Amino acid sequence: MDDPPSCGCLSVPGLRGTTEEAAAGLLRNAALIWLGSVALRTPIDRARRTGRQTSPASRRAAGFTLIEVLVTISIIAILTGILLPALAGARRQAQLTRFSVMQRQLNLALTQYAHDHDASMPYFASRNDPYSAVRIGTETFEGFSYFSAQVNLWATPLVPVYIPDRSMIEDEELRQWMSEQGRPGVVLARSALTATAFAAPEYFTLAARHLPVNYGHFRPTRLWEVRFPSDKALLSSYGAIGSINDLDAIQVHGHPCSFADGSAATYPTRVIDDWPAVAVPWLGTIPILTTEDGLAGRDR
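^ thats the sequence. predicted structure below, dont judge the formating
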């Protein structure tokens, strides 16, 4: 469909123009209407100044006309339509920036923790026993929580030594919810720690799914088991319960991910969905969390 002709008259803004061009066209038209209404009122105002008698119709025209009111409303609506999306976009961008900074801080804290613990990742379960209770801080989690509890509550022992202010990594609403559940002592970080940190790389293979469970696979892991540091993500909002209130920003900008080499990047959900992963009991098939070959594998 061709655009209407563009001129100095009250033309319709081009359909193929940008949002800014359309807004400029609407503002131009509104201004022309307003100027026209002012021009119509000028003879009446001049007559008042010269003392000439005006007709009742002219006297009625001295107030705001319906056209002027409509033009004012239109201008306000146009400006609102332009400004509100921009403000919302700025808010989402600021939220993503804070989220990305938090990712880097979490990755640094995790690395420092590992270096202080013989390169070992945080671990809360009983070695060689995925069915045992998971004890995180003062809290105990029963049932099939070997992966889910550790993946989402991994940051608990890092506060306050490695993360002085837990509010920097937690959503306040979720923190209050955890307190209401009677678990105020655990930290539900906005980023999940990959489940591959809680079992040997051999566990996260297709071959292991066709063999009897090797309970020796359920153990703490160490940073040196990561074979491709620049390609294996350790932390991400993808699959993280703690980032559920950040979905608006994530849908627009993607998931921040921190890699074992300390780098960080943001990826759309559709991209991460295609990363290699294997099915894991009690957890499922979740890229980054259940990367094929575990810590020895690659995500991107």
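The chain has seven helices and six strands.
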